[in-house]
Amino acid sequence: MKKAKQIPTLVGILILGIATILGVFLINKTQTFSLRATPQVSPEQVRITNISETSFSVSWTTQTTAKGFIIFGETSQLGQTALDDQDEGTETQKEYLIHHATLKNLKPSTKYFFKINSGGKAFDNSGQPYEVTTAPTLNLSLPESDTAYGMILEPEGGPVKGVVVYLSLANTTPLSSLTKTDGTWMIPLSMARTINLANYSSYDKELQIEEIFVQGGNSGTITAITTTKNDNPVPSLTLGQNYDFRQTASLISPNSPSPTASFLIPTISQAPLPQASPTVTPKPTGFSLEPLISPGAPKLTILNPEEGETITSQKPEFIGAGPAGQLVEIKVESESSLVGQALIDQKGSWNWTPPSNLPTGTHTVTVTLKDENGLLQKVVRSFTVQAAGEGLPSFTATPSGQLSPQPTIIIGTPTPTPKPPKTGHLTTTLIFLIMGISALIFGFYQFRSI
C-alpha cells in the first residue's frame, strides 16, 4: 500500500501566522487611510435663530462641502425633514460649506427635537438630540413693519450668494438670513421675539445698536456695528472687513479682531448679547462705502421678492428703490387685487406690506410712479405664495451617529482552544493553509478597495 504524502503541520501554522499578521496590517492600513480620506463633515458652529411660533432656523458650517438637512420631530423619534434653504425648490441636493435650514409649519409653544444630517450621517448634541421650544401665540396686533437689509460682496467686488448674516439686538432672540443670488439679505426686525419669546421685541427704531456677523466660510467673515436708523439699507459689506457705522461710515481694518465678542453668537444659546464698545475707529483716508441703494437713483426697481420667487409668508414685505421723495403705487393681483402707496425715502428706498394676508398661489406685483419730469416708470414682477411646509421632498433618515464619529473595532467572543492536531496530518495542514490564504486575500482586497 502506497503511503500518503505528509506536509508538516508546522509549515501550515507558520503560513497562517504570517497571513494573519499581514491581514491585520492591511486592515489597519485601510482604516487609517480611510480616516484620512474621510471628509470633515461634522457640523460646526451650530446656531439656532429666528424662533417664532411656527418656525425656527438652524445654521452650521462644515470643513468640506457636504449635503445637509435637518431631521426633526416632536419626540426624540424625529421622523420629519427640512432641507437646507439653498436646496428648496430644487430636485437634487447640493453640497455646501455653509448651511442654513428653516423648520416651518410648526406648532406654537411646542418642544421640537432635531439632529443634523451632514454628509449622510446624523449628528446630535453630545449623545442627545438638539431641543428647541417654539414661541407662544400672541393675541396682539402686529408691530409696524421694519426690515433690515443690505448686500454682501466679495473682496473683488462681486455679490456673494449663500453666506449667512447674523443680526443681534439687545433683549432679542438672534436673527439670521441667507444671502440671495445678488448678494442681498433681509431680516424682518418687527417680528422678532424677546429672549423669553413671550412678546415682540421692543426697540428704538432710531438709536438701537445692531451687531452684524457674516459667516462666509473659507471666503472670510465680517463684523459690523450699526444702528436701527441706518439699517435699511446697511451699506454694502465686503468679506474680510470689519465696520462701525454708529457715527460715521467707517472701516475698521481687514481681518482685525472683532470690536466685540458678541458677534460670535453662542452655540445653541438664547442669552442676550453684550453691547458693543462705544469706540469709533476713524475712517481711513481715501476709503468710501457705496450704499446698496444710491440716494438719487432714478431707476425704479423691486428688490424683494425676486422674479419667480416662492415665499411662505402671506404678508410679505415688498422692498425696492427709486428716485428719492417720489410716491410709488403698488398693486398686487391674483384672484383679487390689493393696492397701496409708499414714499421713497431720502436713501432712495421704499417698502410696503399688504394690509391683509395674500392667498396661496401665483401673484403679480406692479409698481408704478411718475417722476419729477413726468415720465412714467413701471416694474412688474411675479411671485408665488406657498403654504409653509409644502413641497418638501421626503428623505429616509440615516441612522444616528455620534457628534464626532470614531471607527470602532469589534472584537468577537474568544473561541475555545482546539486540541493539538496530529503532526504531519494532511487535512489539518490544508485547513491552516486555506485559513491563511483567505486572511491574506481578505486583507489585500480591503487595501485595494480604498
Provide tags for this entry.
450 residues; mainly beta; Immunoglobulin-like; 3 domains; six-stranded mixed sheet; 25 strands; elongated
Q: What's the number of extended β-strand segments?
A: 25
N-to-C SSE string, H for helix and E for strand = HEEEEEEEEEEEEEEEEEEEEEEEEEH
Corresponding CATH architecture of the largest domain: Sandwich
Query: How large is the share of residues in beta strands?
Result: 25-35%
Low-pLDDT sequence parts: 29-38, 255-297, 388-424
Question: CA-to-CA gap between the ends?
Answer: 53 Å
Instruction: Walk across the major sheet and give the strand order.
Output: 11-10-13-14-16-17
Global geometry: elongated
Q: What is the mean pLDDT?
A: 75
**Biggest sheet details:** 6 strands, mixed
Structural class: mainly beta
Q: State Rg.
A: 30 Å
CATH topology of the largest domain: Immunoglobulin-like
Task: Estimate nothing, just give the exact number of structural domains.
Answer: 3
Written overview of the protein:
By secondary structure, the protein is mainly beta. 12% of the residues lie in helices and 31% in strands. Strand 13 (209-215) and strand 14 (221-227) form a beta hairpin. Helix 1 runs parallel beside helix 2 (426-449). It is elongated and about 105 Å long. Residues 29-38, 255-297 and 388-424 have low confidence and may be disordered.
Give me a quick take on this structure.
With 450 residues, the chain is mostly beta strands. It has helices spanning 9-37, 426-449, and strands at residues 44-49, 56-66, 68-73, 80-83, 96-103, 111-118, 121-123, 130-133, 147-153, 164-168, 175-178, 184-188, 209-215, 221-227, 237-238, 242-244, 250-251, 301-304, 310-311, 318-321, 327-333, 337-343, 349-352, 361-370, 376-385.
